[in-house]
Amino acid sequence: MQALKILLCVWVLALAGCGFIVTGMEVVNAKVAILSAETAGAKVHAVYEYQVARAYLDKAKEETAYAEYWSAKKFAEKALDYAIRARRRAEAMSVVEQPMME
Fold this sequence. Notes:
This protein is 89% helix and 0% strand.
């Protein structure tokens, strides 16, 4: 019984320490997606999606600083989603703007 209690304590402590790592990975993924959207021209062609992604990323960083890892992860996921939308919209607009060559 004592061994079970010790095992349970170790397991809980291990899970508590993983929050920062998982959240950190989500924030980095969102940042990379935002940079990808910038490269695709999202600052010009997908302004709304780009700005929302940046705002969610900033909020995720803020929540991480307060050790609110679950909230930070959710904001980072939203930032990633909007960054992907921004990149897709910017890429689509770039294709539309291409002049036709004859």
